[in-house]
Design a protein that fits this description.
Layout lengths: L13 H13 L12 H10 L5 H14 L3 H16 L5 H19 L7 H5 L6 H10 L10 H9 L8 H11 L5 H14 L20 H5 L2
């Protein structure tokens, strides 16, 4: 990916506010495409979604949550019982072990309730910073922007960040995203990267923020 010509933007940049304002006009209340019932099923879904599509996760968790929608029921399945439900998802062996282990820890250390504290949540097996950020932001506990491949790519192309790591991009986005948009920015950037600003051939011709994007001319042949 080409380094943006523009330096990282500063808080208060009107271009950033305009970008998110246009995203809001298109979708005022963006939601995750993962399907969940409560904090526990949300956490499990996000853990399973690593290096997998939301569609594939939803296909697996639909039947799974019908039989195991609580930490106790999930732990009772065990790895061997869980594996058939998630075999279609990438890295299913590791994910099965993590989901069972985190279910056991939620039962043993947190009274069966998912801890809504970042440090405690990230201490659970298979839960890193990105996963915790998605869950905490979605539940309204803590404004956060989880940087996946879509967010990373869109942030660079729009010159919202020139950070070279997900953590650096996250820090830039948290710093420059206007407060009214902070809890929704994560969803907008993912959706934009998933359906418009795709990896190989971004759809700049139909992009609602192409005129605000410093890299769009290169793709449009200008």
């Amino acid at each position: 990916m080409t380094q943006p010509d523009a330096p990282a933007v500063e808080p208060g940049d009107p271009r950033v506010a305009e970008i998110f304002g246009r995203f809001e006009a298109i979708e005022p209340a963006p939601k995750p495409e993962l399907e969940y019932l409560d904090p526990f099923t949300l956490l499990v879904s996000v853990v399973l979604s690593a290096q997998a599509t939301d569609v594939s996760v939803n296909k697996a968790t639909g039947p799974l949550f019908q039989v195991a929608d609580t930490p106790a029921k999930m732990a009772a399945l065990g790895v061997e019982g869980l594996t058939p439900f998630i075999r279609s998802i990438g890295l299913f062996n590791t994910k099965a072990k993590n989901v069972i282990a985190l279910s056991q820890q939620v039962l043993e250390r947190h009274g069966g309730q998912v801890p809504l504290d970042r440090e405690a949540m990230q201490a659970l097996p298979g839960v890193g910073r990105k996963t915790a950020s998605v869950v905490l932001n979605e539940l309204g506990v803590e404004p956060a922007i989880a940087v996946d491949t879509h967010v990373f790519r869109v942030s660079w192309r729009l010159a919202l960040s020139n950070g070279k790591t997900p953590h650096a991009v996250e820090a830039d986005l948290m710093r420059v995203t206007p407060a009214p948009y902070l809890t929704r920015a994560h969803h907008w950037l993912i959706l934009h990267g998933r359906y418009v600003c795709v990896a190989r051939r971004p759809k700049c011709e139909t992009c609602p923020v192409a005129d605000l994007c410093p890299t769009a001319p290169a793709y449009l042949g200008a």
